[in-house]
Amino acid sequence: MEPILEIKNLGKSFKDFSLKKINLTLERGFIMGFIGPNGAGKSTTIKLIMNLLRKDEGEIRIFGKDHIKDELEIKNRIGFVFDENHFYEELTVQEMKWVVSKLYKTWDDAAFTRYIERFQLPLNRKIKDLSKGMKMKFALTIALSHNAELLIMDEPTSGLDPLVRSELLEILGELIQDENKAVFFSTHITSDLDKIADYITLINNGEIIFSTAKDDLLNNYGLVKGDKKVLDENLRESFIGLKENMYGFEGLVRDRNNVRRMFGDRVLVEKPSLEDIMLYYTRREQNV
Amino acid sequence: MNILISNTSDKPIYDQIVEQIKNLIINGELTEAEMLPSIRNLAKELQISVITTKRAYEELEREGYITSVPGKGSFVSAHNKDLLKEARMRIVEDKLEEAVSAAKTIGMSLEDLKNMLCILYEEV
User: Fold this and answer.
1) Do A188 and A158 meet the contact criterion of CB atoms below 8 Å apart?
2) Do residue A215 and residue B51 have CB atoms under 8 angstroms apart?
3) Is residue A283 part of a domain?
4) What is the CATH number of the domain that holds A72?
5) B33 and B62 housed in the same domain
6) In this predicted model, what pLDDT tens digit does every residue of A189-243 receive, in sequence order?
7) Would you put residue A2 in left (φ > 0), alpha (ψ -120 to 50) or beta?
8) Which positions in chain A touch B73 (Cβ < 8 Å)?
9) Which value does ipTM take for this structure?
10) Phi and psi at residue A17, in whole multiples of 5°?
11) What is residue A69's three-state secondary structure?
12) B27 to chain A nearest CA, in Å?
């Protein structure tokens, strides 16, 4: 089956930043987390996918179709959740639904009612009076009420409390049950992804550092700590990033079992979090 | 069926699942031909990646504990009774070993230990 989202050699240059020929692929039935520090190119990439920005070069295929030539059809099948509110602030939830439901060919009013009830959203409240969590839930309700196959979200969890974030993650898990849908979402809160993401793509300075199964990262990478005396050239070379202080060192390696075999009890080896991995990769870039 | 995942353990999550399902099969909590939850449902319930549960099931299938039928689901395999018995005997052996080392630390003789075992065997 062809991928639900495929990006090939996508490039875009601004005065002070450029996206450098990035590639990524997402299959149906999976959740991909798109991570990177602020200004790395996450939002630029998502805006290019949604054709809110003109690309300079490269190709974006969604459902196997060109994202510009078949834009209308594609957007009918995408659910989109932005970080910022993109609804009319003065309308109520109910009024906004009337407007939006006309835009989609496959609007599902029963689904809308179901999510409104589940999220306990007040139909008669103006959008500007909703809390930040409610606004995200409303955007998600709209995104899920037209049978979208691909859910694209830009920083949906930023500024939300842990409870709302965990509710969102639960919904995403439900969404991919039928193996036909996929979720692509950017975030810098990597703990959301430690759990449910299937794939992780890390972007930094407009370049993709890796795009791989999360399990491969968490099962192989290691956080190594120890006495600076242990730090020989051999060990130093295996680090992706390294921090030294007065009392020892801490660094990230790609193969923790190998370091364990080589250094045994002389170093402390731990399983890293995605945050550790992101930090060490992006920090190295700055040091070089 | 209970499966508990530790996120702090160094052991990969798929491995934790494999081990726990194996144990459920060996102590008979999961019986022959019983259907396991789908890969996606298990991932959703445990809030982990589908890739993780898929890998766990593949591992269990490779070792012969379960059988997957495309479009139907995964089932506990019809087990080689000898293999299962052997696995259970290993558990007994482990526990006896524990008992022996506990006996040794207090200087109990083999004779006393045998007597105790005989009494227990009759009683239980």
Assistant:
1) yes
2) yes
3) no
4) 3.40.50.300
5) yes
6) 888 888 889 999 999 999 999 999 999 999 999 999 999 888 888 788 889 989 8
7) beta
8) none
9) 0.75
10) -155, 145
11) coil
12) 29
